[in-house]
# Entry
Amino acid sequence: ITASHNPPEWNGFKAFSRKGCIYGKDMEKVKQIAKEVDSERLGKKRGKLRSYKKIIQEYMDFVANKIEIERKLKVVADTANGTCGLVAPTLFTRLGCKILTLNQNPDGTFPAHLPEPKEETLGELKREVVKNKADFGVGYDGDGDRAVFVDEKGNVIPGDLTLLIFAKDVLQKSEGAKIVYELSCSMAVEEYVKELGGIPIVERVGHTFIMDRMIEENALFGGEKSSHFYFSECYGVDDAIFAGLRMAEILSKSSEKLSEIVDSLPKYPSIYEKNFECPDNLKFAAIEKLRSRFKNYGLTILDMDGVKLLDKDGWVLLRPSNTEPIIRVSAEAKTEEKLKELYGFAKKELNHVLKGD
# Structure
């Protein structure tokens, strides 16, 4: 039962069928069925409710058998009063790390900060990493499917750069492996994966799309800019605790510090994400209007998810949020000037559409 990174007043649950996660059109069918249910005329109860109390121990054994940490590391984790506080400290300690855990006790009111790991919420984590001279820090979201990393200098690492660290580790072990990433990631992802001999595969934003594509392609790793990381060893699930431990494994086998590894990665000027408020019943129509405008201008676009305007020296992506009444805008370019130009154009066009021009 989770509303992921949303504020405490939100709630929900993830639904799965035998084929995997239910989303999109299938979820709309479930919604329609629910609307038609007459609560005064419910049938007999069906099925059984079972409690299985060994699942956490079995999970920890499963993960511990897949991670090998070669030297003792000092780690700071912010579990954000979410589910990771139940497991992460025990696993890091079991595998030989010294760990300081912030906001460990699960509390659905999230008293420390919103359960979304990002620059604005990870101030305490950044300070504690530097203060304790830790090798790295990791911030989790409320339901443990996002892991945002902080280097030993207290810098938050963008998700698509972390993706490259994990992809390199995978490709060093399995030459020619397929790596799935989503279309808001840096241009550097495709370039770097190819350079390392891997096969980059682009997909829509969202864990259901990445997971399905990984299964379809038999990919070994997948990642998103929002710091969801998917490992084939975990059945393609975006397991943030596993991601944190895999990072510890990588660093324990390297002579480089995390900041040095990040500095060696290719990167371009970018705008990670700007949010523009738009009602749920209008946001998809707004994207359709933008798509038509861009086509009428004769521009090159990719419309896999929202609308992505492509330029030889950069791109800008406008996409409706799957969970909130907003349209997100991301951009990247080879120069700051081109970045400013692309983002400015997209912002101007979006504002025209939102005003009904």
About this structure: The mean pLDDT is 93. The two ends are 41 Å apart (CA to CA). The CA atoms of residues 21 and 208 lie 6 Å apart.
